[in-house]
């Protein structure tokens, strides 16, 4: 079984010699299974199991390993130390492939048998052969790749996107097969002359940074890999031919002059061919080994078998980002502005909206946001990826057709009119999508704001991590919260979350006016269908008049704890006590915290993978989210978007999955969601923008709804900032002699409609 380790004499002996093993004894809890002369037996302690199993002269491999891995761990005839090391390496590779990368034991075993216990080689073997699905894993970019300077020759002007894989066009028919027996998918198109030709599907393409050709990935036909293999083979042949000519000037060699990359290969060979004596001592012919993915703008070196990070690549990635997301480039601003002027647009200019939204960053993990869309939007992806953008574009096209045949009713232009709509029979179902802006007034620490957020101020050297892990965190601070990193080392995540975890159990933070708005929306109207919150702070649980089945915590909650591997729930108070006494305080604010961190093991499986029930990056969202949106959204009449940048997929998909005739109220400091179809100013047919801080805008809406009296009793339960805003409004209403329900003057200021 996956979580049961059966220990054997050889692994114990190796443990004594090297003090480490893939299946660590401290991860197991009594009773310990061992193999003795009578078969599998149990011992009350690890030491007893060691002694009993060591006395057994029959070696049986760990039951956690599949049969082929067991064969790899079989004893050699000489029973020497080298075979012990081989067994250990095999077990370690197996555990990483299964537990960190998520492959099945059978697939991992076959890969290790095929290429040996090199994790990177086995990982690539599995993906290149199509034997398993890429589920993440630790991405630690190489910063000193020797091929960047010599192989990256594409200029900014050369770069372009949107092309199909050109393998079938560039390569002769006899070499036009796939790259390693992958999916073998093909499509067909007609050229200008009416000739039908074979092409690869247009997804998952890579660009060669040496010759600028476009090739498909291992998930299509693997032509990016075959491009490298072909160009490398040519370079090796050319170098060998030149070596023979120099050593034997009279000999005559012919080289294969295929079309694909010959000129670059000859040039590369010439650069490496200084003289016959040192030709093999220089960097071996590497082929066109450096390529960039158009899917996520990551750069891969086939020769180094690693992702890359290098200053020379930054301008190229920036240019590709501009090409892929043209609205984010400053150069496109002029063209957009001219188009807007031609269309006679007034009010908010979409160019400014898009530049604000898209300028928050996409490639290389550089994620910035303003305070109103900060801390807690935890997910596997921080940007609206291509699939979300494509779905949004299709939804917008369908909506345009819908409105042509169904003229829209008058759109509310003030918060007073929005209040009237909420109270009207036309509005029967309301959904709320909330982001970090809803909790800003509570004082929860900010994660992503530029300059002072946690990601910008993070000091990896303070974390309990290896130097390789720290380097990965420096390259992308969100690596701390990736599932693969957590399974590898839980301590950095818990160290950074420590103040948040302890603040949650101590109720350091309180629900804001924005939270109370949703509570009253349910209590006063009964029209709240669902509250989808991207926040993990759990503040919605303080809204006692709101049934918790009305809330979907899209990215989990800090108020519970579980094991990431076996999913066993853990008492939250026990977990918080463990965090308080075992996890150091990297902020330096808690003098009672321990000086060093020690892991917190699961009380069921024994692995160091206990954490709050938050969704780590590269993890699946709760099934409840997908089930609820399927059932809830078709009947929604109003979607209220509160304090979110709408850059986190798939939660941001709610804005275009509601019916075409549903209104959308956006409450935020800045316009958001333009790429998802939200329109502002005169372009809008169903979107109302409440610009400002969430508490202030929603307080005004509550006043228009006549709920001010309901809020007066909550002043003492609010965080300081929310309480101040409410007191000021109460004093203003009392001074003007209003009881709450007019507020039209303030409404005109707050609305962009």
Task: Spell out the key features of this protein.
753 residues; alpha/beta; six-stranded parallel sheet; five-stranded antiparallel sheet; 27 helices; 18 strands; 37% helix; 10% strand; disordered N terminus; disordered C terminus
Strand count, sense and closure of the main sheet?
6 strands, parallel
Number of helices: 27
Name the overall outline. Answer: globular
Strand arrangement across the biggest beta sheet: 12-11-10-16-17-18
What is the helix content? 25-40%
- Secondary-structure content class: alpha/beta
Sheet-strand content, in percent, reads 5-15%
According to DSSP, the number of beta strands is 18
Please tell me the overall pLDDT: 74
Based on CA atoms alone, the radius of gyration comes out at 30 Å
Query: How many angstroms does the end-to-end distance come to?
Result: 61 Å
Unreliable spans are 1-28, 56-81, 173-183, 252-265, 269-283, 327-385, 739-753
Question: How does this structure look, described?
Answer:
By secondary structure, the protein is of the alpha/beta class. The chain contains 27 helices and 18 strands. Helix 9 (223-247) crosses helix 10 (262-272) and helix 12 packs antiparallel against helix 13. It starts with 8 loop residues before the first helix and ends with a helix.
